[in-house]
């Protein structure tokens, strides 16, 4: 399965969720949904890790403001 942009991924997951609630999903659609969820979680984890890696810790005490 091809990699989708995050917006496209969310849109397709939501389409499958709506269809699942209305009429149910075929076996192929269930497999697609599971794969899309994996991609979404992997993207989320990578983005979150990148944000955490950008954090810089310093030992300086913040100035006291009165």
Task: Fill in the keyword field for this structure.
66 residues; mainly alpha; 67% helix
Q: What can you tell me about this protein's structure?
A:
This protein is mainly alpha-helical. The chain has a domain at 24-52. Helix content is 67%, strand content 0%. The chain is built from two helices and no strands. The protein has helices at 6-22, 27-53. The longest helix has 27 residues, at 27-53.
**Structural Rg:** 20 Å
Question: How many β strands by DSSP?
Answer: 0
Strand content: under 5%
Low-confidence stretches: none
Order of helices and strands: HH
- Per DSSP, the total helix count is 2
Query: Biggest sheet, open or closed, and with what strands and sense?
Result: none
Shape descriptor reads: elongated
Q: Termini separation (Å)? A: 58 Å
> What is the mean pLDDT?
91
Structural class: mainly alpha
Secondary structure: helix percent: 55-70%
Protein name: UPF0291 protein P0Y55_07150
Keywords: Cytoplasm
GO cellular component, one term: cytoplasm
Organism: Candidatus Cohnella colombiensis
Describe the protein's topology:
Layout: H1 6-22, H2 27-53
Q: In summary, what is this structure?
A:
Belongs to the UPF0291 family. The protein has about 70 residues and is an all-alpha fold. Helices cover about 65% and strands about 0% of the residues.
């Amino acid at each position: 399965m091809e990699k989708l942009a995050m917006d496209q991924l969310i849109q397709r997951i939501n389409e499958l969720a709506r269809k699942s609630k209305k009429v149910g999903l075929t076996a192929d659609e269930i497999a697609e949904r599971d794969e899309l969820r994996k991609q979404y979680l992997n993207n989320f984890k990578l983005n979150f890790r990148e944000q955490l890696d950008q954090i810089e810790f310093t030992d300086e005490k913040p100035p006291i403001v009165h």
